[in-house]
Automatic annotation (TrEMBL):
Span list, region Disordered: 397-430
Top-level class of the enzyme under EC nomenclature: translocase
UniProt keyword Glycoprotein, yes or no: no
Protein name: NADH-quinone oxidoreductase subunit H
Family named by the database record: Belongs to the complex I subunit 1 family.
């Protein structure tokens, strides 16, 4: 997947632009995200409709392209209500706190290498930092405060539960997401996004670190609160979750924009850290000028749109899971597997860097693989035995119940009969 090196930017190339070039790049990024949200809403509705053999939006404008514009105008002009019992200051600030960090998080995503922008040679990236990926994680964590404050300030039980769910969910899945980046840092030797893209000149990290990529994909849905992990706004049990008390006004539009921007950030980070960033895919990379000039913007956008299409496809295919399943997956599966994988990657890197410690590295890697398999089999066996014991206990209790005198010809269950998740109730006996 290697192409001709075309003036890859480094950290030294940032901070040297004239002020007006920085402003131009900031405006371009804002327009890309703002218009991308409007087009993304239309595209998601249209794509899901085609998956379900429907037309989707087709009335406002050609192919329904003006439907998102009409929705934005409606929400912007609709009367902005404040429920009587809300905390007015926090109720107003919560949507803003959700949107602003989402814009800032995308500022570290590189769109292309060095380009000629209005006669100035500059990297097509707003800003880069020695800890750019950590900055993105921090912005994602800050935006969760907006969700929590939206639920708490609404003074509604449904909204409060949605906010608490979001807080617990982001703690669980941001840890696993951060751990999935550690292997990338070990291979790239840096946390700078531009230099991580440079490190993928020959081979993309999705090939070298496929377990990290798969774990990130799962955490991406949990971090962005997308189906099947959209528990903070589960309308099946919480009406509308943290946004129950927000009517279809400008504040609701900001909440929608914040959610879509988190999805865009997750897609952009996936492209940057694992899919080669702006680098051309094989065999296009064989072309000498594939990674030069403005062509990398096209390759980045293609990867970005395909990643977003995958997120929409998952939404159209999978149902929402239970909250206990969400927590169990994050703490019992993703984090332990991530830790074991990081140790394995560190052992392999030790083999590559230190030739003299090859046998020690191989021994550590083999012991880790055997240990992970043993622990996995042990946990699976214990869990299976626990479920069988619960099922036998429930069947014994219902057997005892069916032998007792019935009231009116029907068995009467005791009031203190416990409920066991995941165990089906045997059919009642008349």
């Amino acid at each position: 997947m290697a192409g001709v090196l075309a003036a890859d930017p480094t950290l030294a190339d940032f901070g040297k632009d004239p002020l007006w070039i920085t402003i131009v790049k900031a405006v371009m990024l804002f327009l890309f995200l703002a218009l991308g949200v409007m087009f993304g809403v239309w595209f998601e509705r249209k794509l899901i409709a085609r998956m379900q053999h429907r037309y989707g939006p087709n009335r406002a404008g050609r192919f329904g392209l003006l439907q998102s514009v009409a929705d934005a105008l409606k929400m912007g002009l609709k009367e902005d209500l404040f429920p009587r019992t809300v905390d007015r200051v926090l109720y107003f600030l919560a949507p803003v706190i959700m949107v602003v960090p989402a814009f800032l998080a995308f500022s570290i995503v590189p769109f292309a290498p060095m380009v000629d922008l209005f006669g100035v040679r500059t990297p097509l990236q707003l800003v880069d930092l020695p800890v750019a990926v950590l900055f993105m994680l921090a912005m994602g964590a800050v935006s969760v405060y907006g969700v929590v404050l939206a639920g708490w300030s609404s003074r509604s039980p449904y909204a409060l539960l949605g906010g608490m769910r979001s807080a617990a969910q982001v703690v669980s899945y941001e840890i696993a997401m951060a751990l999935s980046f550690v292997a990338v840092f070990l291979f790239a030797g840096t946390l700078s996004t531009s230099e991580i893209v440079k490190a993928q000149e020959h081979t993309w990290f999705v090939v070298l670190l496929i377990p990290s990529f798969l774990i990130y994909v799962v955490c991406m849905f949990g971090e962005a609160a997308r189906i099947p992990f959209d528990l903070p706004e589960g309308e099946g049990e919480l009406v509308g979750g943290f946004q129950t008390e927000y009517s279809s006004s400008l504040k609701f539009a900001l909440i929608m924009m914040g959610e879509y921007l988190h999805t865009f950030t997750a897609s952009g980070i996936a492209v940057t850290l694992f899919l080669g960033g702006w680098r051309a895919p094989f065999p296009i990379s064989l072309w000498e000028g594939a990674n030069a000039g403005w062509w990398p913007v096209l390759w980045f956008l293609i990867k970005f749109v395909l990643t977003f299409c995958f997120i929409v496809w998952v939404r159209a295919s999978l149902p929402r899971i239970r909250y206990d399943q969400l927590m169990s997956l994050g703490w019992k599966v993703l984090i332990p597997v991530n830790l074991a994988w990081i140790l394995l990657v560190a052992a392999v890197r030790n083999l590559v860097v230190n030739e003299g410690d090859r046998m020690i590295g191989l021994g550590i890697a083999g012991a880790l693989v055997i240990g992970v398999l043993a622990v996995w089999l042990r946990i699976d066996t214990v869990d299976q035995r626990r479920k069988e014991a619960q099922k036998a206990q429930v069947e014994a209790e219902f057997e005892e119940l069916s032998s007792e005198p019935a009231a009116g010809g029907f068995p009467v269950p005791p009031l203190d009969l416990p409920h066991y998740h995941g165990v089906s109730r045997p059919p009642s006996r008349a």
